[in-house]
Amino acid sequence: MASNEDKPVAKEDENAGSWKDSIFNPRTGEFCGRTAKSWGLILLFYLVFYAFLAGMFVLTIWVMLLTLDDYVPKYRDRVPHPGLVIRPKQLDMLFNRSQPLQFAPYVQTLESFLQHYNDTEQERNVACAAGGYFEQEGEVGEQRKACQFKRSDLSLCSGLSDSTFGYTEGRPCVLLKMNRIIGLKPRGDPYVNCTAKRDTPIQMQYFPSEGRFDKMYFPYYGNKLHERYVQPLVAVKLLLNKDDYNTELTIECRIEGSDLRNNDDRDKFLGRVTFRITVKE
């Protein structure tokens, strides 16, 4: 007859064997409750299932790519009107005109930005006739010609006669351009008009004359077809005087004279831009 001390030990051996059998049962050859055949069928099912999903995904992408154009986006209705962009890329500018280190970043930004507009670079483009759209036909993938926009057209704001763009004299220049939109042909005669948000106006000079975006720079055919294209610019020189110094000036610039929108409250940069500038002495 077995002693009472042997019974707990036998029970522990039985529990240990049951736990090990749940992982691998040597009597039935099951691993984690399944035979090798069962595991093979499951793995085969998931292999076929995920291969089918991958094939459907690749087929969908392939069909979608067949509908795309390499040169023109398929859907362009979300941005029918261009935004107005300022250079230097600062909506809040503050500097002392007698301390070059303070306005040096603005000057460097303008100088770097205008490198593509250098006259020697632009002479490789076409001298287009002003006043009309420069529409071009061509074969698929054929490069379109670009109209010249020479840096010298910006006159006092070109950085050629004054390398500091007027910042050292307290009469700074800012550059404005429209965002590129493929196929855009603005109606009317678009030009930039800037106003100061205060009771007394600020004198300004525009380059080119009257701050106009000539139609010869439209339409734009896209980055792949129009590699040498540069956006037309309007330079605005703020003719500040001593009464304007040491005061934050808020300037709003809008595209006027065309069908381009500039009054959408949901987008403060659609056809307009507002910036603040403080010049100290």
Question: Which descriptors would you attach to this protein?
Answer:
single chain, 281 residues, alpha+beta, 4-stranded antiparallel sheet, 4-stranded mixed sheet, 10 strands, 24% helix, 20% strand, elongated, Na/K_ATPase_sub_beta, transmembrane, transmembrane helix, Na/K_ATPase_sub_beta_sf, glycoprotein
Oligomer: single chain
Order of helices and strands: HEEHEEHHEEEEEE
Strand order of the largest sheet: 3-5-8-7
Are there runs of 5+ residues with pLDDT below 50, and where?
none
**Silhouette:** elongated
Report mean pLDDT, rounded to a whole number.
88
Measured by DSSP, the beta-strand proportion falls in 15-25%
The portion of residues assigned to helices is: 10-25%
Largest sheet: 4 strands, antiparallel
Structural class call reads alpha+beta
Q: Supply Rg.
A: 35 Å
Number of helices: 4
- Secondary structure tally: strands: 10
* Terminal residue distance: 111 Å
Main location: membrane
Function: This is the non-catalytic component of the active enzyme, which catalyzes the hydrolysis of ATP coupled with the exchange of Na(+) and K(+) ions across the plasma membrane. The exact function of the beta-3 subunit is not known.
Subcellular location: Cell membrane; Membrane
Membrane topology: Single-pass type II membrane protein
